[in-house]
Automatic annotation (TrEMBL):
The chain crosses the membrane at residues 71-90, 102-124, 193-212, 258-279. The keyword Signal applies. This is Palmitoyltransferase. It catalyses: L-cysteinyl-[protein] + hexadecanoyl-CoA = S-hexadecanoyl-L-cysteinyl-[protein] + CoA. It is found in: Membrane. Its main location: membrane. InterPro entries: Palmitoyltrfase_DHHC, PFA4/ZDH16/20/ERF2-like. GO terms for biological process: protein targeting to membrane. Residues 149-297 form the Palmitoyltransferase DHHC domain. PANTHER family: PROTEIN S-ACYLTRANSFERASE 17-RELATED (PTHR22883:SF286), ZINC FINGER DHHC DOMAIN CONTAINING PROTEIN (PTHR22883). Pfam families: DHHC.
Length: 394
């Protein structure tokens, strides 16, 4: 039984690391990159199985990791659908009981339906794709000239608004780019970030609710059905010994292993999803995104390298994040994106320090960028000026 519990927790932890660890910059992030690095896996496979196998692995890497594909969307649907089938077969027959009323039968269906609806909304909602027709709507965000400066995307052939990024998987520029989510097979950007947060918190609450249901069913089985609180056994000396809580749990696990295992699995996923949601709420409170956290890390590293030799080890002061406007205002921009608000077109963009009123005619107007790779640009720590003017301002 201990091995089953440890195995369940280990599988849940690995799923969390593989699926949600990409945004982490600590140990979880390093584990995620080690477990999901197709290139590293391909090199190891090539040494073991030969070049042909390595070439096949590279093809799978390209299809699965660098092209839009619904693999994890299908996995989500199978995970949710399979879990509900197990719930229908093994848990629903125990409702109602002395601890759960009959309405929980209906609420289970409603909760699952809500999860699917939110999943499809988050998957197919436009993340904030930048086009020539809507460029003015995404250009009301100023360039700070620290981690963002006027740049031309030569793949989309458009000026890239501040806080946007060209996604190499979706092959499009996305406003207020956070990350590419394989679970949604879509980027998470300005216009679907709120749905992504709703997806996380809803499924976290759904897993907590599922855990509550399974606990109540288990308690009903233990107390009302098997009356384990009155159970006893005879020890070696023939004396009565009350059944301990661990022994009662072991008995229930042997008789109803699916009910108990799903409950534990839901609890682990609930905390994992809530932690990921809380992390994104923290990013909102700091006025940054997952993509920008890496840019700020690169900036700090650049400042450290630019420090005089005698000051190495001292704390590094980086420019203030001018996109941080306070938690409430940051949250309001997530819930009601700037691009959906009324605008006066490029006049607003020019007033706020965003893209200029006309597209740049030459590459000298703005820094060009190939789009296919969006590596952080080299930042001169000695000349970083968050409030300096840029070519798009008049």
């Amino acid at each position: 039984m201990i091995f089953v519990l440890v195995g369940t927790l280990l599988v849940a932890f690995l799923i969390y690391v593989c699926c949600f660890g990409g945004s982490s910059t600590g140990v979880i992030g390093r584990m995620h990159r080690a477990l999901t690095s197709c290139g590293c896996f391909g090199r190891c496979l090539g040494k073991i199985c030969g070049k042909r196998c390595a070439a096949a692995c590279e093809y799978v890497d390209d299809v699965c990791c660098w092209r839009p594909n619904p693999l994890l969307q299908l996995f989500y649907l199978s995970l949710m659908g399979g879990g509900f089938i197990l719930y229908y077969m093994h848990c629903l027959p125990h409702i109602p009981n002395t601890r759960l009323s009959a309405w929980h039968r209906l609420s289970s269906y409603a909760a699952m339906l809500g999860g699917f609806v939110i999943f499809f909304l988050a998957s197919f909602c436009d993340p904030g794709t930048v086009t020539s027709a809507n460029l003015h709507r995404f250009s009301t965000v100023h360039f700070d000239n620290v981690i963002y400066k006027p740049k031309m995307c030569t793949t989309c052939m458009l000026p890239r608004p501040a806080r946007s990024k060209h996604c190499v998987i979706c092959n499009k520029c996305v406003a207020r780019f956070d990350h590419h989510c394989p679970w949604l097979n879509s980027c998470v950007g300005e216009r679907n970030y709120r749905l992504f947060l709703l997806f996380l918190i809803y499924h976290s609450v759904l897993c907590f609710y599922s855990f509550f249901i399974h606990v109540q069913i288990t308690m009903s089985l233990a107390i009302d059905t098997y009356q384990l609180h009155d159970a006893y056994y005879l020890d070696a000396a023939g004396r009565r010994q009350s059944v301990s809580a661990l022994q009662a749990f072991q008995y229930l696990f042997m008789r109803h292993n699916i009910v108990v295992a799903i409950g534990i699995f839901c609890l682990v996923l609930a905390f994992a999803l809530f932690g990921f949601w809380a992390y994104h709420m923290y990013l909102i409170s700091r006025g940054t995104t997952t993509n920008e956290t890496f840019k700020w890390q690169d900036l700090r590293a650049e400042f450290k390298r630019a420090q005089p030799a005698g000051e190495r080890g001292a704390s590094v002061r980086v420019p203030v994040n001018t996109y941080n406007k306070g938690f409430l205002r940051n949250l309001s921009e997530v819930l009601y994106p700037l691009s959906l608000r009324p605008t006066a077109g490029f006049a607003d963009a020019r007033r706020h320090g965003g893209a200029m009123i006309h597209f740049p005619a030459t590459a000298s107007s703005v820094e060009c960028d190939g789009g296919a790779e969006d590596e952080p640009e080299h930042i001169d720590a000695a000349h970083a000026q968050p409030e300096s003017a840029h070519p798009h301002q008049e």
